[in-house]
């Protein structure tokens, strides 16, 4: 996720890229959005969702621009090295300058200054052909402090991701299995509120069941952190298919209930107290900047890549609005679950047992496939952060310490709290804020500076962001830092009232 230069992989069309990007963005965060909508009010939620979608699109174009600048610098360095090698060969073989000038046109183009090559119609120096991950871009454009801050931010974000995943699976299992026993069968979503101390099975309380499931989840998936795993193509297809079946089912079931006059929701227009969590959930739900190099680089034709990304954001905005509005009008605010799928395990909503269990357990299947991959990514980022040129880690540090510091903190967080809305909100509001706003803005600023220094002020990046004026970078930075202050102040004030 935040590594160095990697293989581009198999190329695909712009429209396939659009689907991949849609699948990447619409994930676990979307399942917590209906509750956040209900808590903040429909009007405030819609306005904030649209604004944050716009901000996320802007910073996405900043990352694409930085990717193009990184590709240009890599090409330039290779061409400079080739020129030096050619000059060394010429001097060693005694070839004169006049002989060099008589070489064929291709060789002359290779040894000319880089801007001269561009003017003669050769492939654009800013073409995105190599996958340069965000970590490598940070190393190219930031100083040492900036690189360390980047890795700190992405590590905190990945820890938050893992904590959300570690809590979401046991929460879903408890809600489904505890409600499927005794007198509580099919009672999810009917207004019944359970406490952690309520009984689940016999003498076992719900909080005990949650922790048992968390322990089982950790024992089953935790060992993968000590090895290398990757998401296969077929696994990706399977999880994407399950996700879309689940989302479409939830929207259709909610619409059917509303059309039959069974809607119970009466959402308010605005509740300022819910903005903090809504902000974090929206930032988390629009997160894709850290994965853009993997998505954009393999697209075969990138001429209109910014328009393609804009279309994706419009579709995602419409989808989030449809999912959330059907939810808040179908269910009462106090019955909406942190994980929206759990509202559909009630017999009154759907009497087909298979669909109830499919939706209730949907997060378990999809999250369980993602958890090891995120964990390995976090482990590798820890290794990169402490890596020294030419150095190697002792076996114990490499195989035991790094996987342990990756796995233990998120499991401890999940052990202490299962409040998914707060976990998503805090992860998005802090680490997500840094990755989605601050890092892309600094990458755009520093890459523009470096591009002018290396290629001259007249050089134009073909993938330059539509928001090319410095005002937009300053605006994003002010917005990002203001969000840090707002969210922190909101948390402090909320805690002081308790």
From TrEMBL:
<comment type="similarity">
    <text>Belongs to the TMEM104 family.</text>
</comment>
<feature type="domain" description="Amino acid transporter transmembrane">
    <location>
        <begin position="20"/>
        <end position="67"/>
    </location>
</feature>
<feature type="transmembrane region" description="Helical">
    <location>
        <begin position="349"/>
        <end position="378"/>
    </location>
</feature>
<keyword id="KW-0472">Membrane</keyword>
<feature type="transmembrane region" description="Helical">
    <location>
        <begin position="308"/>
        <end position="329"/>
    </location>
</feature>
<keyword id="KW-0325">Glycoprotein</keyword>
<keyword id="KW-0812">Transmembrane</keyword>
<dbReference type="GO" id="GO:0016020">
    <property type="term" value="C:membrane"/>
</dbReference>
<feature type="transmembrane region" description="Helical">
    <location>
        <begin position="210"/>
        <end position="229"/>
    </location>
</feature>
<feature type="transmembrane region" description="Helical">
    <location>
        <begin position="471"/>
        <end position="493"/>
    </location>
</feature>
<feature type="transmembrane region" description="Helical">
    <location>
        <begin position="12"/>
        <end position="33"/>
    </location>
</feature>
<feature type="transmembrane region" description="Helical">
    <location>
        <begin position="39"/>
        <end position="72"/>
    </location>
</feature>
<protein>
    <submittedName>
        <fullName>Transmembrane protein 104</fullName>
    </submittedName>
</protein>
<dbReference type="Pfam" id="PF01490">
    <property type="entry name" value="Aa_trans"/>
</dbReference>
<dbReference type="InterPro" id="IPR013057">
    <property type="entry name" value="AA_transpt_TM"/>
</dbReference>
<keyword id="KW-1133">Transmembrane helix</keyword>
<feature type="transmembrane region" description="Helical">
    <location>
        <begin position="241"/>
        <end position="258"/>
    </location>
</feature>
<feature type="transmembrane region" description="Helical">
    <location>
        <begin position="141"/>
        <end position="160"/>
    </location>
</feature>
<feature type="domain" description="Amino acid transporter transmembrane">
    <location>
        <begin position="135"/>
        <end position="467"/>
    </location>
</feature>
């Amino acid at each position: 996720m935040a590594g160095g230069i990697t293989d581009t992989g198999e190329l695909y069309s712009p429209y396939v890229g659009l689907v991949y990007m849609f699948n990447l963005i619409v994930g676990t965060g979307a399942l917590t959005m209906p509750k956040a909508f209900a808590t903040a009010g429909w009007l405030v939620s819609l306005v904030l969702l649209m604004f944050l979608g716009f901000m996320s699109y802007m910073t996405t174009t900043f990352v694409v621009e930085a990717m193009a600048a990184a590709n240009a610098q890599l090409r330039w360095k290779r061409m400079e090295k080739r020129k030096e090698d050619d000059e060394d060969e010429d001097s060693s073989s005694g070839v004169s300058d006049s002989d060099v000038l008589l070489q064929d046109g291709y060789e002359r183009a290779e040894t000319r200054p880089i801007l001269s090559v561009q003017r003669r119609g050769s492939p654009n120096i800013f073409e995105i052909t190599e996958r340069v991950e965000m970590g490598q871009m940070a190393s190219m454009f930031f100083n040492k402090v900036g690189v360390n801050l980047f890795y700190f931010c992405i590590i905190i974000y990945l820890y938050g991701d893992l904590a959300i995943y570690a809590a979401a699976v046991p929460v879903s299992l408890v809600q489904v299995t505890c409600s499927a026993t005794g007198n509580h069968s099919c009672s999810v979503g009917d207004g019944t509120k359970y406490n952690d101390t309520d009984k689940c099975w016999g003498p076992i309380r719900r909080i005990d069941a949650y922790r048992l499931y968390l322990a089982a989840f950790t024992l089953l998936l935790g060992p993968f952190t000590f090895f290398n795993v990757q998401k296969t193509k077929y696994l990706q297809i399977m999880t994407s298919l399950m996700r879309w079946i689940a989302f479409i089912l939830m929207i259709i079931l909610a619409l059917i209930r509303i059309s039959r006059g069974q809607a119970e929701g009466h959402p308010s227009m605005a509740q300022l107290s819910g903005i903090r969590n809504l902000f974090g959930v929206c930032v988390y739900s629009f997160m894709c900047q850290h994965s853009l190099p993997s998505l954009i680089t393999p697209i075969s034709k990138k001429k209109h890549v910014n328009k393609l990304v804009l279309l994706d954001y419009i579709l995602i905005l419409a989808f989030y609005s449809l999912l959330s509005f059907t939810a808040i009008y179908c269910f009462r605010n106090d019955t909406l679950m942190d994980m929206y799928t759990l509202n559909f395990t009630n017999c009154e909503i759907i009497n087909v047992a298979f669909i109830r269990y499919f939706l209730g357990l949907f997060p378990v299947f999809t999250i369980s496939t993602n958890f090891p991959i995120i964990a390995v990514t976090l482990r590798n980022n820890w290794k990169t952060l402490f890596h020294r040129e030419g150095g190697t880690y002792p076996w114990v540090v490499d195989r035991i310490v790094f996987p342990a510091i990756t796995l233990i903190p998120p499991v401890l967080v999940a052990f202490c709290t299962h409040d998914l809305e707060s976990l998503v909100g805090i992860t998005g509001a802090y680490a997500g804020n840094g990755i989605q706003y601050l890092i892309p803005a600094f990458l755009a600023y520093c890459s523009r500076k470096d591009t002018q220094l290396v290629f001259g002020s007249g050089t134009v990046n073909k993938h330059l962001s539509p928001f090319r004026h410095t005002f937009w970078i300053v605006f994003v930075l002010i917005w990002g830092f203001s969000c840090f202050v707002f969210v922190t102040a909101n948390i402090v004030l909320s805690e002081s009232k308790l």
